[in-house]
Amino acid sequence: MKLLISNDDGVFALGVRVLADTLARAGHEVTVVCPDQERSATGHGLTMHQPIRAQIVESIFAPAVKAWACSGTPADCVKLALWALLDTRPDWVLAGINQGQNLGTDVLYSGTVSAAMEGLFEGIPSIAFSLASYTYTDFQPAADFARHLLEQLGESPLPLKTLLNVNFPAVPPEEIAGVTLSRQGVRRYVDIFEKRTDPRGKTYYWLAGELLEDVPQAPDPLVGERFPTDVQAIRDNYITITPLQYNLTDANALLSLDGRQWRVG
User: Fold this and answer.
1) What is the model's pLDDT at position 190?
2) Where are the alpha helices (DSSP H) in the chain?
3) What distance in Å separates the CA atoms of residue 214 and residue 228, rounded to the nearest whole number?
4) Helix (H, G, I), strand (E, B) or coil at 107
5) CA 110, 99, 64: angle at the middle one, nearest 5?
6) Count of beta carbons in the 10 Å neighbourhood of residue 56
7) Rounded distance, CA 170 to CA 179, Å?
8) What homologous superfamily does CATH list for 2-183+225-246?
9) What is the distance between the alpha carbons of residues 7 and 19, in angstroms, rounded to a whole number?
10) d(CA 260, CA 113)
11) How confident is the model at residue 195 (pLDDT cuts 50, 70, 90)?
């Protein structure tokens, strides 16, 4: 299969290299287009008011992997690859393996998930992969799982307009409890801005938010409590697979608001 891989940790990140090399060794045609430096938590931002540059990267990935470093965001990388760098459309867009979890409401900030979502916008099946640790660096089990997952999905494709957000617990393979489908949880942070002064005496602020709590979730109106939240499942050492969509319409609220009389002024 033809695979396009991006991420938000940057083209030199270990996670993307392990994923790309593992899939290339499995016989896939792999192209990597990633930011030239870390651009985490950029969401789905696009570069609109300055040029985007792309440079071929050599001697980092396996010889069969074609790689580019892009000056833009993760979403820029996928858009540029699909419309300018690749000769043919890939069969899959993959994002990751990210250093750090993308769980719950974090997916709204995630450049990794946004890179995968950009592929979905273009009608290409897409998956985001993340390792739930900022310090654990054994990406190989996650890359091996990604390889097997692609094989399974090749036999049974994803529903249209759905991407998979996959998170791996940061534990040795023998401690992984299994694989579970999960629903998106909610994580809440306390956002603390540190006030600092630069060498010229001017004030600036540094965001230093910390996780405050994982918010308990009410049963989902469609599936109840049949599926755990991704936040809880990772805590229990499961690999989580959460289907996501780009349609943010709240159908239940739409129905509950239907019939109201709305005044113009």
Assistant:
1) 64
2) 14-25, 74-80, 111-121, 140-155, 230-235, 251-257
3) 13
4) helix
5) 100
6) 9
7) 14
8) Survival protein SurE-like phosphatase/nucleotidase (3.40.1210.10)
9) 11
10) 36
11) confident
- The band of 129, judged by pLDDT with boundaries at 50, 70 and 90, is very high
Peptide bond into 97 cis (omega under 30): yes
What pTM did the predictor assign? 0.89
CA separation for the pair 164, 195 (Å, rounded): 38
Phi, psi of 18 (to 5 degrees): -65, -40
Domain ranges of the chain: 2-183+225-246, 187-215
Tens digit of each residue's pLDDT (9 = 90 or more) over 60-72: 999 999 999 999 8
Q: How many residues does the chain have?
A: 265
Structure-block tokens of residue 130: 């993340």
Task: At 70, list the tokens.
Answer: 């892009």
Query: Strand runs (DSSP E) across the chain, as ranges?
Result: 2-6, 29-35, 54-57, 66-70, 92-99, 126-131, 163-168, 178-181, 186-190, 193-197, 203-207, 210-215, 238-244
Q: How far apart are CA 170 and CA 132, in angstroms?
A: 6
Furthest CA-CA distance within the chain: 65
Q: How far apart are CA 179 and CA 76, in angstroms?
A: 31
Our measurement of the distance from residue 110's CA atom to the centroid of its chain's CA atoms, rounded to an integer in Å, reads 6
Residue 25: count of CB within 10 angstroms of its CB = 14
Task: Indicate the residue type of 211.
Answer: L
